[in-house]
Amino acid sequence: MTTASPADTPPGTPVVAVLGTGIMGSGMARSMLRAGLPVRGWNRTRSRAEPLSAHGALVTDTAEEAVRGADVVLTALNDGPAVADTFRDATPGLRPGQVWLQSSTIGTDATTDLAHRAAGLGLVYLDAPVSGTRQPAEQGTLTVFVSGPSSARATVLPVLEAIGQRTLWVGEEPGAATRLKLVANTWVINMVNAVAECLNLAEGLDLDPRLFLDAMKGGPLDTPYLQGKSAAVLSGDLSPSFALSTALKDTRLILEAAEAAGLTLDLVEASAERFTRAQAAGHGDEDMIATYYAGRRP
């Protein structure tokens, strides 16, 4: 495996190792490849990374191979334990000075722990969760929240420009971006459950849900999110752009952070209950609007 940029890559172009090529990781990897960045892709289940080969990525057997010689290591995994395990496996291939762009939503405690581990290896840790789902990841139109040393900006700028339409630099210390992501996800989680409950109630009152959507259409309370998520339910196409099981994981992270801050979030607690019921009914791998099924009584 090479340990430097290919000969036809412009000088200063970072080599990027993408660890985790699920919905978000694969979308970001393809966006970087379109932008001309050399990408090495790894996933614990290799078959999920293989499709990136057709787009020009080098798919590796191990996380260690992927990170060896890379300039930027981007993690896009499901949760804190998955990131920690992958980081451990990749450690022999890491070197001081590499930038770790940690995009997974893992919560405040895991972020602090990983930042300390990274510092111990001389890595530059950027806490960089993203806002967006499958389509923005594939189109390179995510919003990226970043906190960490501003000295790393020049190195990661080509990556951030490739994967996102907007980058918010939240602060110099890791953790601030994760906290902002939890706030943003609170909005999304409460909104998707509000959409689901309106559809539930319309049907329960013997109304065609399309009447409700038409009543909202074009007015101040209408949103593309309302129309898009409702369309998914009404068409029966619940292909995940953001899986319900992942939404439940994020909901629990929000509640943990709220408890630590001495807050009670009633709506988020209710959302957690709905997601839990929907997952127990077999909808965990579907889009999170499958929370709709939590409101339908047997």
Tell me about this structure.
48% of the residues lie in helices and 13% in strands. It folds into two domains: 16-172, NAD(P)-binding Rossmann-like Domain (Rossmann fold), CATH 3.40.50; 180-295, N-(1-d-carboxylethyl)-l-norvaline Dehydrogenase, domain 2, CATH 1.10.1040. It is of the alpha/beta class and 298 residues long. It starts with 15 loop residues before the first strand and ends in a 15-residue tail after the last helix. The longest helix has 29 residues, at 176-204.
Nearest-integer average pLDDT? 95
Helix % is 40-55%
Number of domains: 2
* CATH structural class of the largest domain: Alpha Beta
Series of secondary-structure elements, N-terminal to C-terminal:
EHEEHEHEHEEHEHEHHHHH
Query: Please, how many helices?
Result: 11
- Provide the CATH superfamily of the largest domain: NAD(P)-binding Rossmann-like Domain
DSSP summary, beta strand count: 9
CATH fold node name of the largest domain? Rossmann fold
Query: What integer value in Å does the Rg equal?
Result: 20 Å
Largest sheet: 6 strands, parallel
Which blocks of ≥5 consecutive residues have pLDDT under 50?
1-5
Strand content: 5-15%
Query: What structural category arises from helix and sheet content?
Result: alpha/beta
